[in-house]
Amino acid sequence: MKPPENSTTWLGLSKLPLPEGEASRWVTEPHIGAVVTFSGVARNHSEGRENVTLLEYEAYEDQVVPRMERIVEEARSKWATIGRVALLHRIGPVDIGEAAVVVAVGSPHRDEAFHAARFCIDTLKFTVPIWKREQWEDGQSWGLEPQHLREIEELEQT
Q1: Structural domain boundaries enclosing 151
Q2: What digits encode the pLDDT tens for the residues 65-82?
Q3: Could you point out which of 44, 131, 137, 139 has its C-alpha 20 to 30 Å from the C-alpha of 73?
Q4: What gap in Å lies between CA 55 and CA 41, rounded to an integer?
């Protein structure tokens, strides 16, 4: 997974470990004074489940990048000064301790970078068709409860 050469947006899915450091470096440009990188890391537990040993992600791949593009467009409309933005997500098995999602945002100032990064990860979770299966010592499940995808406009009304 390599960053684009002639774009300010890097989006994608990968079956391989995500390039966290490369995403942070990629959003850094001469006019950028703040880089915020969020990594969602697979952990060994979740609510009511101890000893989680593996996470697996599945995606409706035809819809992922267009929905990610929409998230970045909305972030740019809210925080016009942000520079490069990376939204990267794993699919397939993800070992405990590995990043399942990476969001990196560069901006001249920290407030915009923090707000835009938070908006991107929160919106991704609710609007992009990616599902998680947890495996633990006594079983497995595709999430704790059904996730109903929403449109960005629906989130802004709540």
Answers
A1: 14-157
A2: 999 999 999 999 999 999
A3: 131
A4: 10
Residue 71: which region, alpha, beta or left (left: phi > 0; alpha: psi -120 to 50)? alpha
CB contact at 8 A, 51 and 140: no
In the structure, how many helices (H) and strands (E) does the chain have? 4, 8
Distance in angstroms (rounded) separating the CA atoms of residues 135 and 52: 6
9: in domain: no
Total tally of structural domains belonging to the chain: 1
Residue in the structure block whose two tokens are 């979740």: 46
Q: What is the CATH number of the domain that holds 92?
A: 3.90.1170.40
Each residue's pLDDT tens digit, 112-135: 999 999 999 999 999 999 999 888
Measure the CA–CA gap between 134 and 125, rounded to whole angstroms. 16
Its sign, for the CA torsion 34, 115, 89, 93, is positive
Residue 118 lies in a domain: yes
> Does pTM surpass 0.85?
yes
